[in-house]
Amino acid sequence: MPEPAKSAPKKGSKKAVTKTAAKGGKKRRKSRKESYAIYVYKVLKQVHPDTGISSKAMGIMNSFVNDIFERIAGESAMGIMNSFVNDIFERIAGEASRLAHYNKRSTITSREIQTAVRLLLPGELAKHAVSEGTKAVTKYTSSK
Predict the structure, then answer these.
(1) How many CA atoms lie within 13 A of 7 on its CB side?
(2) pLDDT at 6 over 70
(3) Against a cut of 0.70, is the pTM above it?
Protein backbone atom coordinates (compact mmCIF):
# COMPACT_ATOMS: atom_id res chain seq x y z
CA MET A 1 0.00 0.00 0.00
CA PRO A 2 1.48 3.39 -1.00
CA GLU A 3 2.39 5.85 1.72
CA PRO A 4 0.54 9.19 1.85
CA ALA A 5 2.42 12.08 0.21
CA LYS A 6 4.22 14.39 2.62
CA SER A 7 3.48 18.09 2.32
CA ALA A 8 6.33 20.28 1.07
CA PRO A 9 7.87 22.67 3.61
CA LYS A 10 6.49 26.19 3.50
CA LYS A 11 8.45 28.78 1.55
CA GLY A 12 10.80 30.76 3.78
CA SER A 13 10.87 28.00 6.39
CA LYS A 14 13.78 28.48 8.78
CA LYS A 15 14.20 24.82 9.78
CA ALA A 16 17.63 23.41 9.00
CA VAL A 17 17.68 20.19 7.02
CA THR A 18 19.30 17.60 9.23
CA LYS A 19 19.95 13.96 8.45
CA THR A 20 16.83 12.69 6.69
CA ALA A 21 16.07 9.36 5.11
CA ALA A 22 16.27 9.46 1.31
CA LYS A 23 14.72 6.95 -1.13
CA GLY A 24 17.34 4.22 -0.62
CA GLY A 25 17.17 4.53 3.16
CA LYS A 26 20.50 6.39 3.16
CA LYS A 27 20.92 9.44 5.36
CA ARG A 28 21.83 12.78 3.80
CA ARG A 29 24.51 14.79 5.52
CA LYS A 30 23.90 18.34 6.57
CA SER A 31 25.83 20.68 4.26
CA ARG A 32 28.88 22.24 5.88
CA LYS A 33 29.26 25.97 6.24
CA GLU A 34 32.81 27.13 5.52
CA SER A 35 34.36 29.12 8.32
CA TYR A 36 37.72 30.33 9.56
CA ALA A 37 36.71 29.58 13.16
CA ILE A 38 39.17 26.73 13.75
CA TYR A 39 42.06 28.84 12.43
CA VAL A 40 41.05 31.88 14.49
CA TYR A 41 40.80 29.62 17.55
CA LYS A 42 44.26 28.09 16.92
CA VAL A 43 45.86 31.54 16.59
CA LEU A 44 44.06 32.75 19.72
CA LYS A 45 45.42 29.78 21.70
CA GLN A 46 48.96 30.44 20.42
CA VAL A 47 48.80 34.09 21.46
CA HIS A 48 46.67 33.80 24.63
CA PRO A 49 46.40 30.16 25.76
CA ASP A 50 44.12 30.95 28.71
CA THR A 51 41.62 33.09 26.77
CA GLY A 52 38.39 31.88 25.16
CA ILE A 53 36.10 33.42 22.53
CA SER A 54 32.31 33.62 22.34
CA SER A 55 30.42 32.37 19.29
CA LYS A 56 29.28 35.93 18.53
CA ALA A 57 32.88 37.20 18.62
CA MET A 58 33.92 34.24 16.46
CA GLY A 59 31.25 35.21 13.93
CA ILE A 60 32.63 38.75 13.85
CA MET A 61 36.18 37.45 13.37
CA ASN A 62 35.01 35.12 10.58
CA SER A 63 33.27 38.04 8.86
CA PHE A 64 36.42 40.14 9.23
CA VAL A 65 38.63 37.47 7.60
CA ASN A 66 36.13 37.07 4.74
CA ASP A 67 36.12 40.86 4.17
CA ILE A 68 39.93 40.98 4.09
CA PHE A 69 40.10 38.16 1.52
CA GLU A 70 37.44 39.84 -0.63
CA ARG A 71 39.42 43.11 -0.60
CA ILE A 72 42.63 41.31 -1.56
CA ALA A 73 40.83 39.54 -4.41
CA GLY A 74 39.30 42.84 -5.58
CA GLU A 75 42.65 44.61 -5.53
CA SER A 76 44.36 41.84 -7.50
CA ALA A 77 41.54 41.96 -10.07
CA MET A 78 42.04 45.72 -10.37
CA GLY A 79 45.79 45.16 -10.74
CA ILE A 80 45.16 42.75 -13.60
CA MET A 81 42.79 45.23 -15.26
CA ASN A 82 45.30 48.08 -14.89
CA SER A 83 48.04 45.91 -16.35
CA PHE A 84 45.80 45.02 -19.31
CA VAL A 85 44.87 48.66 -19.99
CA ASN A 86 48.51 49.80 -19.74
CA ASP A 87 49.52 47.05 -22.18
CA ILE A 88 46.89 48.14 -24.72
CA PHE A 89 47.95 51.81 -24.39
CA GLU A 90 51.61 50.87 -24.93
CA ARG A 91 50.72 48.85 -28.03
CA ILE A 92 48.62 51.70 -29.45
CA ALA A 93 51.39 54.24 -28.75
CA GLY A 94 54.02 51.98 -30.34
CA GLU A 95 51.91 51.38 -33.44
CA ALA A 96 51.08 55.11 -33.74
CA SER A 97 54.79 55.92 -33.46
CA ARG A 98 55.63 53.48 -36.26
CA LEU A 99 52.87 54.95 -38.45
CA ALA A 100 54.24 58.48 -37.93
CA HIS A 101 57.76 57.24 -38.74
CA TYR A 102 56.59 55.44 -41.92
CA ASN A 103 54.95 58.67 -43.11
CA LYS A 104 58.04 60.76 -42.20
CA ARG A 105 56.13 62.71 -39.55
CA SER A 106 57.63 63.77 -36.21
CA THR A 107 54.27 64.23 -34.47
CA ILE A 108 51.75 61.59 -33.44
CA THR A 109 48.30 63.03 -34.12
CA SER A 110 44.83 61.71 -33.43
CA ARG A 111 44.85 60.27 -36.95
CA GLU A 112 47.81 57.96 -36.12
CA ILE A 113 46.17 56.94 -32.84
CA GLN A 114 42.91 56.19 -34.66
CA THR A 115 44.69 54.11 -37.32
CA ALA A 116 46.67 52.23 -34.64
CA VAL A 117 43.44 51.40 -32.79
CA ARG A 118 41.88 50.12 -36.03
CA LEU A 119 44.94 47.94 -36.66
CA LEU A 120 45.20 46.53 -33.13
CA LEU A 121 41.60 46.01 -32.01
CA PRO A 122 39.23 43.58 -33.73
CA GLY A 123 36.11 44.68 -35.65
CA GLU A 124 33.31 46.11 -33.54
CA LEU A 125 35.64 46.83 -30.61
CA ALA A 126 37.77 49.09 -32.83
CA LYS A 127 34.67 50.97 -34.04
CA HIS A 128 33.51 51.60 -30.47
CA ALA A 129 37.02 52.65 -29.36
CA VAL A 130 37.34 55.12 -32.25
CA SER A 131 33.89 56.58 -31.59
CA GLU A 132 34.57 56.96 -27.83
CA GLY A 133 37.98 58.49 -28.55
CA THR A 134 36.50 60.98 -31.01
CA LYS A 135 33.82 61.88 -28.46
CA ALA A 136 36.48 62.43 -25.74
CA VAL A 137 38.62 64.64 -28.01
CA THR A 138 35.56 66.69 -29.03
CA LYS A 139 34.56 67.14 -25.38
CA TYR A 140 38.12 68.19 -24.46
CA THR A 141 38.48 70.73 -27.26
CA SER A 142 35.05 72.26 -26.59
CA SER A 143 35.84 72.72 -22.88
CA LYS A 144 38.98 74.81 -23.59
Answers:
(1) 3
(2) no
(3) no
